[in-house]
Amino acid sequence: MDSTVVNGQSKMMIKPTGMAAVWPVIACGVGLFSDGYLNGVIGSVNTLLALIYPNEYAGSTYSKRISSIVFVGTVVGQLLFGYFSDKIGRKFGILSATIIVIVFSALSAGSYGAGGSVRGMFAALTVYRFFLGIGIGAEYPAGSVAASEATNDCKKGWRHALFIAVTNCVIDAGFVVAAFVPLVLVWIFGENHIRAIWRIALGLGVVPPLAIFWVRLKLKEPERFQTQSMRNVRIPYLLVLRRYWFRLIAISIVWFLYDFTAYSFGIFSSPILERIIPNPTLVETFGWNTVINLFYIPGAFAGAFASDWLGPKTCLVVGVTLQAIIGFFMSGFYSKLVENVAGFAVIYGIFLTFGEFGPGDNIGLIASKSFPTAVRGQCYGIAAAIGKIGAFAGSYAFTDIINAFGGSSTDRGNSGPFFVGSAFAVVIALITLLCLPKLSQECIEEEDIAFRAYLVDHGWDVSKMGLLKESSIATEAGEHMSTSAEMTGSADEKKRQMQPVYTAERAL
Length: 508
Hints:
The chain has 508 residues and is an all-alpha fold. It has 22 helices and two strands. The chain has helices spanning 19-29, 33-52, 61-87, 90-109, 118-150, 159-166, 168-189, 194-203, 207-217, 223-228, 237-267, 269-276, 282-294, 296-310, 312-332, 334-337, 341-369, 376-404, 411-435, 443-457, 476-480, 491-498, and strands at residues 2-6, 9-13. The chain has a two-stranded antiparallel ribbon. The chain is globular. 55% of the residues are buried.
């Protein structure tokens, strides 16, 4: 623990160590498993619904709507709870997200049309998945942001890896489980009882949020939020935009381009396999889908460690460049690759794993640690929402891209998405190199200090920032100077002057 002088008295600042520091990170971040599972499983559900209702569903607009509407809800949730996360609290957003996902996962599984109407059932499922998306979206600016702030108490050298492990690695685990669950259900029920399979697959989405609800109920607000929040004051949005507009736009574009391809490849992996396997059984389709999705995992975990070793920016560029190379290769040699399903699945999996190694792991990390705590939820929510708009656009445009390249009956048409995805990867690499910031292990603290100095420079009173009582809202910057230019002494002394002073009251 550290000692800080407050109003002439020595106050103790208790810092958690070991697993006491790690558990809050895990509890905040793992809710994103629902994002991976509930977005991934809908691809298999689409396949099942097309088999059950070939006239009403296959080739209809319902197929696109049910796959894509969750992204609309996610965007609403990210923007809405981005604001709530900053102005009400991280815990409020985390608990709200958990409850929403539980309720609408259950309702999705029980979708029913009035009078047994099939089209009514599709309409109900569409509505439920919209609200489900709001819950998933709330996880980003609440859970992910709180997880990033909690890593500030963890050991240096592992902070980026830990954040990635409980966010993107968990999302990828959700995608893998989403591919495996329908396969297991087909083994249990057989291919003649698939009406139960799609409902059970959706209903199992309630299990992860239920499992973590009690733990999340015990959470307190992260320390950074307690000391740096603007919950009780008016946020100077004009000053925030002047300082961060360029960074926010660059991060948002990268996230848009990556999600455009990443989510559509994940959702449509089953249809892709159906085109290269003649008359596949459900077991074959879901089995190869599981194999492909497994390739997300090594890329995600390798990228987590590489992010601390190389730095998030460099790791992102390396991963997305390798993905572009593999994608262009798949586009050029598609007709040869599909002659061997196993070979195609492996190379397709490598294409996905490099995407996770690079932007999949690091764009969320960069977004969560490039903005000050006071507006982190809103900035992260905006960037993530633009990313999900890309996912929504990609899921709608995927079949259109195939048609534009020649249609699903041709090798050129089916290779089109790989060409487009690789072209986007090149653009992502260039934007990252030129526009995104480098992040250190202390980047959250450094950004908060720099933001306070910037506010003081522009005459904004920083003394009322923070939630803790007494002197938690007092800073030497606010008490002893009118601008940061008046600060004297060494760089370390300047950094100390901008730090908030707070009591031993502590969030775990």
